[in-house]
Amino acid sequence: MGMHEQPAADDGDALIRMEGVNKVFGNFTALSDVSIDVREGEFLTLLGPSGSGKSTTLMCLAGFETPTRGRILYRGEDVTRLSPEKRGLGVVFQGYALFPHMTVAENVGYPLVVRKVPKAERDANIRAMLSTVGLGGYEDRRIQGLSGGQQQRVALARALIFGPKLLLLDEPFSALDRSLRGEMQSELARIHKELGTAFVFVTHDQDEALSLSDRIAVFNKGKMEQVASPSDIYEAPASTFVAGFVGKTNLLDVTDLVAGNGNGLYRARYGDVEIICKGPEHLAHAGSGKLSVRAEEAELHASAPASADLNAIKVRLLRSVYFGGWVEALLEDSAGKLFSVRLTTTRARHTGLQDGRDYWLSWPKGTGYLVPA
């Protein structure tokens, strides 16, 4: 019996669950104790650098790899050793894996042929799915004559045509140029919302993950560092790796941590400067930590800011780089710590950036986020 045919178990809102999954290839541990739920209808992104374990996780979910240890449950039923074709999942690979000798309709309809769906029903489903992915009228086109974006849409249609409860996508936009990638991201978000199918999406692109996902699981060296909403991943990272990998941040070594009265705020010291920042409750007795200050949270001032609502550090501008709508300033404090600040071009011009000149770097008290050292 395929996974899509199995009755739902009372397992909360988890469609599929990984419990304590390890995967070892020879002497290399690709996954170490990974546990994660995929919820009904959600868009979950597996994010991490190359070799972090995100694609191996997806391959284990699909059934193309079998965990060395741990198990995979589909609606409460153990499917750890169930073959891919019996799991009833849709999969889109980086290379699309389309059949060049078939037409668009034949490619999209292939899963229905395998399932012995009658031709009339099959043809109607193909037309409907091609319309959903924006390829209405392309039924008789050959694959070789399609653009990269059109081929991507065909691959999506083929993976969704049989109504899977879960679609797995392994870096599907990596071969597309930036403008086409942005277009396909918007299309994917629309299709996900329209169909209500759960998507598990693998990428190393932080912006892609932040813009598409209901939740993001961040991977590093075979371990899952954090799984949370995009805003929590960005604004409340669980580790220095998550803080540094997702977005541009400055990590400061801070000491003398004193927790507020259950309000999530801390007093801390950076050198001889007192800092007010946010942080998790479990760091209340840590004594020290790392403070993540996002590059876009900070501002530069030609003189010491008068406001008592700002944390402020004296720095020297090493250089600034123009990116059109914004400017990135690279700075250094008296201890040799490097900082990066992103200013709008208008703000940078107003501040009057000059290499070698001293400035004050500030960010609002109560912002910045503490992570374990």
From TrEMBL:
One GO term of the biological process aspect: quaternary ammonium group transport
Keywords: ATP-binding, Nucleotide-binding, Transport
Keyword ATP-binding set for record: yes
Lineage, highest ranks first: Bacteria, Pseudomonadati, Pseudomonadota, Alphaproteobacteria, Hyphomicrobiales
Stored PANTHER family: SPERMIDINE/PUTRESCINE IMPORT ATP-BINDING PROTEIN POTA, SPERMIDINE_PUTRESCINE IMPORT ATP-BINDING PROTEIN POTA
Keyword Ion transport included in the entry's annotation: no
SUPFAM superfamilies listed in its UniProt record: MOP-like (SSF50331), P-loop containing nucleoside triphosphate hydrolases (SSF52540)
GO molecular function, one term: ATP binding
Protein name: Putative spermidine/putrescine transport system ATP-binding protein
